[in-house]
Amino acid sequence: MSDAAAPRSRSHWPVWLALVLAAVAGIAGWWWLGRPVALPDAPSSRIACVSYAPYRRAGETPFDPNAFISPERIDADLRALSQRFDCVRTYAQGQGLAAVPTIARRHGMQVLMGIWLARDPVANAREVAMGIATANANPDVLRGVIVGNEVLLRGELSPQVLAGYARQVRAAIPASVPVTYADVWEFWLRFPQMARVVDYLTIHILPYWEDDPVPPEHAVRHVAAVYARMQHAFPGQRVMIGETGWPSAGRPRRAARATRVNEARYLREFLAYAARVQMPYNVIEAFDQPWKRVQEGTVGGYWGIFDVDAKPKFPMTGPVVEEAHWWWGWIAAAIGAVAFALAGWRRAWRAGAALALAGAASGAALAWQARQMIYACRDLLEWGASIAACVAALATAWWLARGLAWRLLGVEPRPAPAWLCLGWLFGLTWYDLLLVFDGRYRDFPLGLFALPCVAYALGAWLDPAPDRPPLEHRLLAVVLPLLAILVVVQEVGLNLSAWLWLGLNLALGLPVLVAWRQAVRLRAQ
Length: 525
Known about the structure:
It is a single chain. The protein is α/β, with parallel strands linked by helices and 525 residues long. It is 54% helix and 7% strand. The chain is built from 17 helices and nine strands. It has helices at residues 13-34, 71-81, 100-106, 121-137, 151-154, 159-172, 185-190, 216-233, 260-277, 293-296, 327-343, 349-376, 380-408, 418-438, 446-462, 471-490, 496-524, and strands spanning 36-37, 50-51, 87-89, 110-115, 142-149, 179-184, 201-204, 239-243, 320-321. It has a seven-stranded parallel β-sheet. Strands 1-9 form a two-stranded antiparallel ribbon. The protein is elongated, with a radius of gyration of 28 Å. Residues 1-6 have low confidence and may be disordered.
């Protein structure tokens, strides 16, 4: 190879700039989580009605046939809820929930009582019989009886069968207790015949879950438009919003971000709107429900106004903070900076500085991932797998950061094993496939993949003569950006997390393709 063909070393300043930006971004991101956000105040601290499900302890689920909620637990819950709510909505009669109306009377509360219906006719008959008995024993505290919840949405019963259950309940309970059915608003328009068998319509409007998700700044306007549309479609009938709310954690859907600040914003603005138009409503929900994460991913467990420990997640007046313990991200960044720098202090100050910046960025990113794990992990298996992945990411980042520091000193480091890069290429591709084909309930593990992806990209910049990547590396490097672009397209370009995810895919995949092209060019020369 001639001198003209010899690879030239690249400037170091882009790497220094990238390291500084990565560290600053990690530190600033945690400050951003901890800043107080000014929001409009709610018109009152009291709320008309709230969905109540007591399944907030580990392992509790309404799908457990042996589950039973004691009257003492229900009494403690309703005693606390009565300080903020005038009414609770239930969804079923079994597992001890038939006792809710009797206990609610003690605390001066009313009940929107649910009768759960599904595919099993035997279970439905038992549930309807219990609901009729409970309604006849407690007509004075019932705002209504909801016969079935989103049964048509789930496709578990036909409208004809569902209407038969509604007529059965209507004929068996006092006329003073209205009967209704609850479903998302589109299904009332799809099956308008259901309006003929109920005393009023109970509709669900959840802007986050709409087919075209509505961002929080437009959410209440969307609710008002849907409510007006339903009143126009069913003139002369009362319409109640039976479920509305916003999640505080989980996957963003397009521009609809699940955050504590957005939950507070939506609830405060919705309560102001509801008070202005004087409409009946019920908010979902009282407590976070960990069991819903099995069905709906992380976001399913965080619709509560209170957390699983019955503590309010935000105030109804004044500013709201997304993460009260934001400073632990700074502590993680500081620990990472010190740990990485100490390992390289014997070399030179430039190596120590580069390692400190890399360590700060790594610590902040891992803390971000740990915060996501606290919300998302459901059992020991998920915790174990997540911790193992974080350890692998940290070890990879350290190995590559050390090599980066050596190159900044003009010393060629021992190359990282090819299988390590292949492992991250495969892991990222696998998760890309999950996001593309089954991504509705999946989070973006940005903090986890940021470490190897950014580290590989910076190391590739300083490597003047990379080896020719193996075939499997090249294939995965081609697939990665294409899959990530599909994720952005699915989010119609509105999801910042999807764009960051694309950036990580490019950071890991492009250096492989560039090294391939460079190796081919040098061989040709």
